[in-house]
Amino acid sequence: MQQPSRIIIADTSCFILLDKIDYLEILQKLFGQVTTTTEVQIEFGKSLPEWVTIENVKDKNQQLLLEAEIDKGEASAIALAMENANSLLILDDYKARKTAARYGLQFTGTLGVFLKAKEETVIPAIRPILERIQQTNFRFTEKIFFGILKEANE
């Protein structure tokens, strides 16, 4: 029996960061189709490309419970992942990642997307991208910077 295709669900921070550094299309190159929620689209505040599907959460009560802990966009993304068993969340916020882990959901961060892109030869190197990200308001430690370079064999 064939497994259903994996649903990639992106949160706002992923779209914002990738848009800031002009790498939004990396999601399409890696995953083809990406899904998000209306709440994330509103938080992003710009039109999303046609390869991004907007899907609403069916269980609004679950979303409201999550909103007591994390912001609306993250809550909607996690609630949507809970409704789609074969999903991968792209989350950067620490609290949102802890919440996703508590529910046993699979997730990565935007920096993890770049690692996958390097692994699949979608990009030749990560260092220039990390240096570009450092010019934005997206923060990560020096330990993470060098850890990612090590993992990418750079």
Walk me through this protein's architecture.
The chain has a domain at 7-109: 5'-nuclease (Rossmann fold, 3-Layer(aba) Sandwich). It is 51% helix and 10% strand. It has nine helices and five strands, in the order E-H-H-E-H-E-H-H-E-H-E-H-H-H. Helix 3 runs antiparallel to helix 5 (72-83) and helix 4 (60-67) packs across helix 5. It starts with 6 loop residues before the first strand and ends with a helix.
Task: Describe the structure concisely.
This protein is mainly alpha-helical.
Write the layout of secondary structure elements.
Elements: E1 7-10, H1 12-20, H2 25-31, E2 34-36, H3 38-44, E3 52-54, H4 60-67, H5 72-83, E4 87-90, H6 94-102, E5 107-108, H7 110-119, H8 127-133, H9 142-151
Parallel strand pairs: 1-4, 2-3, 4-5
